[in-house]
Here is the input.
Amino acid sequence: MVRRSGVLLKSAATGISSRLAEILVCPLTKQPLRMCEKTNSLISDSIGVSYPIVEWIPRLVPSDGIILQSDQDLNSSDSPQTNSS
Amino acid sequence: MAALQFAFPSTAGSRRRPESRSTTRPARCTADRQALFNRIAPVYDNLNDLLSLGMHRVWKRMAVSWNEVREGDTAVDVCCGSGDLAFLLSEKVGISGKVIALDFSKEQLQIAATRQSAQSKACYKNIEWIEGDAADLPFPRSSFDAATIGYGLRNIVDRRKAMEEMYKVLKPGSKVSILDFNKSTSSLNSFSSSISCFFQDWMIDYIVVPIASGYTLADEYQYLKSSIKKYLTGKELEQLAREVGFSEAKFYEIGAGLMGNLVATR
Here is the structure.
C-alpha cells in the first residue's frame, strides 16, 4: 500500500510503514529494531528478542518480547528491509 | 462550569457512602492497571462523555494547545487510550506531520484504530498506534517536537521513570502537556482547595461510581479515587519535572480546580 504522500511504503506483510519501523527502538536497549516479515515481528538483535506485530500494531511492552532461543531463530528472519518509494 | 455545579449533599442524613462489596484487588502493579484499562475499554469513551458532560473534550483541546504543536511536527501521545488526544494532535500537525500514539492496553488501541478507520479526515491517516510502556518508551532520544499525556501519568507506577523517558524523547526546547485530575493541596488555610477536594470525592462516590456500576465497572472507577489521592499535587509535578531535567515546568488548574495540566519544556 502506498501512502497518499507517496513517500512511505507500508509493508504488505506487517502492515506497518517502513518509516515507522525505522524510528522504533527496543524499549529496553534503545537500539534499532529490524523488521522481519517472515515472523511478522520487530527483532532486537542486541538482546535476541522478538516483539510481535498484531493487527498492524507493534507490541513493544517489554513483557511482550519473546526471547529468541537460538542463532537459528535469529537467522531465520529476513534480511534487513530496504526502503523503496 | 455548568457541568460540575451540583448541590452539596446534606451531611445530616444517615446515608452512607457507597462501598464496594467486590473482592477485586486494588490495581497496584502495572499488570493490574493494564488489565483494568482493558476491561473498561469498551465503554471508556461513553463514560468519559457522560461523567464529564463532554467537558473532557475541552480540557484535551487545552492540553494540545499548551504543547504548542505545529503543522509538520512529529508528536507523541503517551497513554493514548482510545485516541482522543492523538486525533487532536493529528489535526494540528496535518498531513505533513506525524503522530505516534502509545498505550499499554491492547483493547484501547484496537478501539483507537477502529475509530481511525471510521474517520474521513486525511490527517488522521498519519497516526501510528504502538503498544508500549510509558516507563520504557520504544523511541530514540530527541524524536518528538511535542508530546501529550492525558489521564495517564496518574496511572503509571513509576512516574519518575516515565518523566525521564518523556524528557529523553523530546527534542530540546519542545514541550510536554500532561493533563489529569488535580490533587488539591487541601489544608485548613486553603478553603477553596478543601472545597475542591470534597467536591472531587463526592463526585466520584455519588456520580462516577454509581454510573460505572451500571456498566458493572464500579470497582474500576472506584480505583479513580485512590489513584487521585496517591497522585502528585501541582507543585510536586513541577518539582518532579525539574528534577528529571525539564528546564521549565508550570502547572495550571482548570475545570474549576478539578483538573490540572502540567506544561514542561525540555
